[in-house]
Amino acid sequence: MAENANFLELVKNGYSFKGECFKIGAAMLDGAVVSGADVLIPLKTMNRHGLIAGATGTGKTKTLQMLAEGLSDASVPVLMMDIKGDLSGIAASGTVNDKITDRCQKLNIEFKPAGYPAELLTLSNQKGARLRATVSEFGPVLLSKILGLNDTQGGFVAMIFKYCDDQQLPLLDLKDFIKVLQYISDEGKAELEKSYGKISTTSTGTILRKVIELQQQGADVFFGEKSFEVDDLMRISEDGRGMISIVRVTDLQDRPKLFSTFMLQLLAELYASCPEEGDLDKPKLVMFIDEAHLIFQEANDALLQQIETIIKLIRSKGIGIYFCTQNPMDVPSSVLAQLGLKVQHALRAFTAADRKVIKQTAENYPETTFYKTEDLITQLGIGEALVTLLNEKGIPSPLVHCMIRPPQSRMDILTDTEIDQLVSHSKIATKYNELIDSKSAYEILSAKLEEAAQKEQAEQSDKEERTEKKTTAKKEKSIFDDPTVKSMTRTAGNTIVRTLLGVLGLGGRSRKKSLF
Fold it and tell me: Dihedrals φ, ψ of 134, to 5°?
């Protein structure tokens, strides 16, 4: 009893906040929920980022869903990356069953089924509002990092962007960038080298191959117009709840390059567009990235450094980022060090490597006399997790074994009919789903090359015509200058004259007779 009292006191002190907060569950000790030991999250610290980790089937996706609901109820917009396709159910009301009823009784909460205001977004041709960005918006530095270029090649990309700016060649999609690369490697090489320096064909070839590799993962559907506006991710619904934007990326699991490209551009755009806010009472936007390992899976060192930098700085913009993944080691340690909230669901120890990961994970949590963390991580039930977060003063809260409250929305996907209905009522789908192909570098350079080709063809035709006339004239002249032709012409002429004189009776002999 004394231990329970001490534990309850610890939880109450560690999870007592002055500002607005919401309940995510209740603390457990010795496998049972401790009455009154509520685990709360202060909205003020939700911009400090977080991690939700655990093995498959331990309930981490439902934890993510529950956190999104709490934020929406507090009028905080939410952005969710739906990799597995099981987050769309947040738009529909949940259903009561015996397990949910039993859990709610233990947590001393009332289950109120509710659907939440949701917007479906997509990077491909799936149903929803299309997310796009132009090549120009990426800029030379970010594009070089995504393509994995070295400093020399990155400098060459910067030169391409400068040339396009000077020549008013808009870079909207990848075909624009490829066209410029091809142009400056061939017809425009001399023009470019006069103002910008020597061009390495090796560099242009390498960059072109990298761009084609990105195209192979479907990047053509992402680059282009109309660019998505950050403000459309920060909307409040008519009933005052935060809008939950769900990016459907179920078709990107085997294309991590495209997924990391999109995520980095989105983070960079959020950072560039949002003003400095400092510490707000609640965040302006919270982003949940499910299956977060896809961001880091094929990221090079430069890309990881860029992600780390943005995560460090974006907090002051009032934006929180939460990674959801199976293995907490999937997230680089430099990023983990920036995270405030940690929700650790169960891990499985089947191999020596698994046990090593569990030991490392346990060492990342605050020390506690109430749990043996390393053992407890493998014994957590479904919907249970180890939780620690930063309080309003930025101090880590005590580590607690928490029973997580169930989501009030549907813990399943929407049907095709429900998705169609949701998209048809969207206020932004029409705005972004219109296909726009503005006049850009591709069209301008193609027209320039076509004009040059036509001019060259006309000059060639004119040259051939002049040559042909000269040749004809020369042939005619050469015929009449020939001695044989001249002799034949004189002979023929004399014959004709004699014949005419004979006909007229003016021949030499006849004239002589008439005189005598």
Answer: -90, 160
| Whether the predicted pLDDT of 112 surpasses 80 | yes
Contact 137, 269 (CB under 8 A): yes
User: In degrees rounded to 5, what are phi and psi of residue 51?
Assistant: -135, 135
Cα separation, 140 vs 52, whole angstroms: 34
Gap between the Cα atoms of 279 and 274, Å rounded: 14
Tokens standing for residue 247: 């990016």
Q: How far apart are CA 50 and CA 213, in angstroms?
A: 32
CATH of residue 393's domain is: 3.40.50.300
Under DSSP, the state recorded for 188 is T
Cα–Cα dist 402/25, whole Å: 6
Distance CA 50, CA 344 (A): 11
Per-residue pLDDT band for 219 (boundaries 50, 70, 90) equals: confident
Q: How many other C-beta atoms lie within 10 A of the C-beta of residue 33?
A: 20
What SS3 state is found at 348?
coil
Domain boundary among 397, 430, 463: 430
DSSP three-state, residue 409: strand
More confident residue, 108 or 447: 108
Predicted pLDDT at 298:
64
Containing domain of residue 212, as a range?
135-221+439-450
In whole angstroms, what is the distance from residue 360 CA to residue 11 CA? Answer: 25
**Measured between alpha carbons, how far is 137 from 143 in angstroms, rounded to an integer?**
9
| Residue 202 and residue 60 share a domain | no
**Number of independent structural domains in the chain:** 2
Distance CA 368, CA 344 (A): 15
- Residues 386-397, mean pLDDT to the nearest whole number: 90
- Render 63-132 in DSSP notation, one character per residue: HHHHHHHHHHHTT--EEEEESSS--GGGGSB----HHHHHHHHHHT---------EEEEESSSSSSEEP-
Pairing of β 32-42 and β 21-29:
antiparallel
Query: Are the CB atoms for 364 and 374 separated by under 8 Å?
Result: no
Contact (CB, 8 A) for 72 and 242: yes
Task: State residue 99's pLDDT score.
Answer: 92
Whether 187 has a pLDDT exceeding 90, the answer reads no
Residue 375 is encoded by which pair of tokens?
């053992």
